[in-house]
Design goal:
By secondary structure, this protein is an alpha/beta fold. It has nine helices and seven strands; from the N terminus they run E-H-E-H-E-H-H-E-H-E-H-E-H-E-H-H. It has a seven-stranded parallel beta sheet, sandwiched between helices. Strand 6, helix 7 (178-191) and strand 7 form a beta-alpha-beta unit. The longest helix is centred in the N-terminal third of the chain and has 14 residues, at 15-28.
Amino acid sequence: MTVLVITGTGTEVGKTVTTAAVAAVAVASGRSVAVLKPAQTGVRPDERGDADEVARLAGAVTARELARYPEPLAPGTAARRSGLPPVHPEDVAEAAAKLAVDHDLVLVEGAGGLLVRFDEAGGSLADTARLLGAPVLLVASAGLGTLNTTELTARELAVRDLELTGVVIGSWPETPDLASRCNLADLPVVAGAPLLGAVPAGAGALAPADFRAAATGWLAPELDGVWDADTFTARQGPAEL
């Protein structure tokens, strides 16, 4: 069973576009892929959710969503306020395991950060990763403040004996500032894990065919891409790190 849990250092860091890039590159390499969104919040029944967006960008991907709540809140809070049943880590792990029977790779994309609560008991994506025995890919922002949230997430994963595969910058700016450029060297240090990619800002607005063609250049070989951290850092980073 190959399951990869994808979390972020917070909201709006590029998790969905990064998940789509990982899926697109895996599909291009000949693997069958499913993406699982445990809880979708802030989306009406007739709107496209994150799993649907991954499928739109990545192509031949099985998309599944376990629950949807109308308000843009943490899943546990959104479930309580809507009167709908919450999602539990066990539900997510069971769904991922079932998808893994028929797919080479299952991507589980969380909501917000690692410890965002699914239910009143405090169940989280971290608990799902533990139940699955799955590694975690961390999506981080590029600029000032990302080192703290990245290190906190990495430390929590370590405390729980969960494997951090690496870090991907979910939205690399076209004109990066000094903090962003320095963070290319500092992120893998504070995470204790390699930098595995940088997805350009605005990548999600590309036409799907263009997105799929470019995705391999955004991700490292560990994620089936051709992106190289040392080359990217040397090109983008300041002269003296």
